[in-house]
Amino acid sequence: xxxxxxxxxxxxxxxxxxxxxxxxxxxxxxxxxxxxxxxxxxxxxxxxxxxxxxxxxxxxxxxxxxxxxxxxxxxxxxxxxxxxxxxxxxxxxxxxxxxxxxxxxxxxxxxxxxxxxxxxxxxxxxxxxxxxxxxxxxxxxxxxxxxxxxxxxxxxxxxxx
Length: 161
Ligand SMILES: O=P(O)(O)OC[C@H]1O[C@H](OP(=O)(O)OP(=O)(O)O)[C@H](O)[C@@H]1O
Ligand SMILES: Nc1nc2[nH]cnc2c(=O)[nH]1
Ligand SMILES: [Mg+2]
Prior knowledge:
It comes from Idiomarina tyrosinivorans. By secondary structure, this protein is of the alpha/beta class. It has three helices and eight strands; from the N terminus they run E-H-E-H-E-E-E-H-E-E-E.
């Protein structure tokens, strides 16, 4: 399925850090968690921030691939499985966002007892997460700070023709 978003949402490192710390705060008390499963790659940075805030040192990853940039493939590939848990009990599964929900649907079947959290959520996949910080419209494409760099912009006066 190929599609084009008509809106873009640019997230800075500071904003991602703030929103992810807010997500971490909501997962207190920390003692209820045995560990974290980060959904690689997008979930790795949020998972590191949450692991730090909740003082969780067991951090596993599950590696899946479903998108080639903005083109979603129909099949989802499991590149590396979870080893730290079999059913997810006492584990936080962390991803950067839920969009169609395909990725988390697949992981919920594998880890039915885990708590699934993302920083951002779009309507189609929202019911698949137990907690998220901000919702965005389905048509919006989110740009994460690791996909961007700062660049010069002409002053408004310089842009007049
Ligand atoms: O709800 P969905 O429609 O499944 O989309 C959300 C998933 O898509 C992105 O990952 P992607 O597969 O692009 O890989 P990446 O994390 O390695 O960038 C994002 O990080 C989520 O994991
Ligand atoms: N970066 C990024 N990856 C995605 N994968 C699915 N939806 C999105 C999105 O809005 N932004
Ligand atoms: Mg991902």
